[in-house]
Amino acid sequence: MDNVCSECNNGITEAEYNFSLNRFDRPLCREHQRLQYIEDSEIINDQKYYSHEKSFNSNNISEKDSIFIENMIKGKIAETLVEELFKYLGYNVFKYNITDSVPGGMQLLKGIRIDAAANIKTMPDLVIQHPHNGEVYFIDVKFRKNETLTFNDVGPDYPYENCYFIVVSKKHIKCITYDELKEGKEITPSSRNYLGNRKEFELDKDVIIKFCDFAVKFFDSV
To answer: Three-state DSSP class for 165?
Structure first.
């Protein structure tokens, strides 16, 4: 079998392979995905990455730590790019995820149950309000090097069913709703679900193209 778990070498499906690669940056079977998720949650709770006792020089940062930090930075850049795009177009934009909107929000995850921490982490990043009709939308921003997002990436238990997922890649900014993901639609490199095509947002495509240029500049070496 072409797709195998990097931990146990057991065969995995194409969907499991793609999900794991997007979520954990390496192919894992479902059991090792579960174990990796628990380990990542415990890392947050222990504040491993932000301990004042840890020296942050290149000799002390492991490869795994480096991947975690790099992915977090890429995600924050993508979120900021989308936030500034909507602000530029006149939207009211608010941070929604508690880890971003509350000072020291990450510390609130320390010591709480893993499932509760997971629920907080799945909160959408932003709430935006249309400048003309006042409609309000949940927005969850993802950076995807491979420009893909499927229902398996989000999962059937995602609590915000009216959420819009905006995927930023090195070339495009695309958008899909949770309901559309449930219907089997996906974001792929060849799909044409560009953010500028969402009629409910009434966005200026020329402005989006300019922000895509920013994305190319920021992520060119990724």
So the answer is: strand
How many residues does this entry show for the chain? 222
| pTM, rounded to two decimals | 0.66
Strand partners, 95: 126
Q: Please, which pLDDT band fits residue 178 given cuts at 50, 70 and 90?
A: very high
Determine the Cα–Cα distance for residues 119 and 20; give it in Å rounded to an integer.
Answer: 19
Considering the domain architecture, whether residues 41 and 70 belong to the same structural domain is answered as: no
**Residue 117 C-beta-side C-alpha neighbours within 13 Å:** 19
AA letter at 30: R
DSSP bridge partners of 194: 174
- Any alpha helices (H) in the chain, and if so which ranges? 14-24, 30-45, 63-88, 98-101, 114-121, 151-154, 178-182, 205-219
pLDDT 10s digits, 59-88: 566 776 777 777 788 888 999 999 999 999
Structural domain boundaries enclosing 206: 64-219
> Per the domain annotation, does 173 fall within a domain?
yes
Give 35-52 as a DSSP string: HHHHHHHHHHHTTGGG-T
Say whether both 17 and 70 belong to one domain: no
Check pLDDT > 90 for residue 173: yes
Give the domain CATH number at 204. 3.40.1350
Which residues touch 74 (CB under 8 Å, ≥6 apart)? Answer: 143, 219, 222
